[in-house]
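Tutorial, part two.
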Amino acid sequence: MTIPALRTATAVRPGRRRLSAAALVAVVGLTAGCTGAAGTGRSGTGAMAAGSSTPPASSAATAAAMTSSAGTSATTATSGGSASTSVFPVDLAAAVDAAAQKAISESRAPGVIVRVSDDRGVFEKAYGTADPATGTPATVTDYFRIGSNTKTMVVTTMLLLVDQGRINLDAPIGDLLPDLPEQWRSVTARQLAEMRSGIPAYTGTQAFLTDFEADHQRAFTVEELLAYVADADLSFAPGTDFAYSNTNLLLVGMLVERASGRTVADNLQDLFDKAGLTHTSYPLEGGGFPEPHLHGFSSLTADGSRQDTSDWSLSWGRSAGAAVSTAEDLATWVRILADGSLLSPDLQRQRLAVVPIPGNPDDDGYGMGIVDAGGWIGHSGDTAGYSSQMYTRADGATLIVLAATDDAPQPGADGRVLTASAAIAEAVSAVLTPQTPFHIPEVG
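Running the prediction step on this input gives:
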């Protein structure tokens, strides 16, 4: 998500395209000014050894000399960062590494985590420092704020209730939420999830931005956030156009709570348990950010000064973008998101029946809390100090980027302005899948 500056019938509706599910996952977690401890010691492919840190010069030389053939792991040292595990063929690993390092240097990000995988293996590496002030190395197991990737999770909780018959995707949301502003009541749950409601984004109002910048510890309620746009006109008639709006996901969260009789947090915890996401959480307040985590920085402050955002409240984002996760968990999640294993086959087909995103290539589309970026299936997320991409393909290539940043956009090769995470993701994908590289859609 960005602070101001993703059916009952089986058939695909006109103008929609079906997406294929994908299998493997690549994760690039980028940190700019992030603070984190050395590896947490979680086991598994790509996990850091307990207490790992930057090796001494002699160890680094030995590690750098280690190479691998396909399917054989090798550990390499990173400059100013922690060790990494790679089971890519050595030439491919070197090419991914070089592309990542070049993009990282251009983004000026002090700490980065890259994890990519396809049928040739897995590459995972941490670059630079998690905290420039202390020199603490970044590790592949650091936690980070995933922004609008939260939307994929919250929409999934709603779709689980659809499968249970407790929410009707095509009924007016006013049936369950009669106290909403009159102009919103005819909108459907499907239109909310597809960003086709026409309800404006509260994060796009000057009133919200002023309040946000004045007090980063403020505990916003849903009602306070909705009030910023409650009297605004719809941007278009529901279902007739596309406009990315965080307000949609606040309303999805309200539907989930009303239909289930339980909080969004409780519904998400059930989802995390079902999906095996043991390092993913939904903390609304700054103190809930697990350690070790990355520290992002932002100038979205009253005086324009650059501040550490890692203790800022996430109550302003709530179901639109308040989740925290790790590269490993997102690798698991994006597979589940793409293959629809938690949903009925019919509902997953509907979810993946995307509509075009105006102003983007014809092969870009948005479904119910999911993006198709030219065959890369997933979502992106931006929140104060953190930027992320998580995408996977039907051919097994997968790419996820989670970034703690300075909110500074980066120029793309074609003149587009990109977040640092998007620039690194695009650079790495050009090596991973040169015939079908990832490009970030512009969705708002």
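Residues 70 and 361 are 35 Å apart (CA to CA). In part three we will examine how such features are distributed along the chain.
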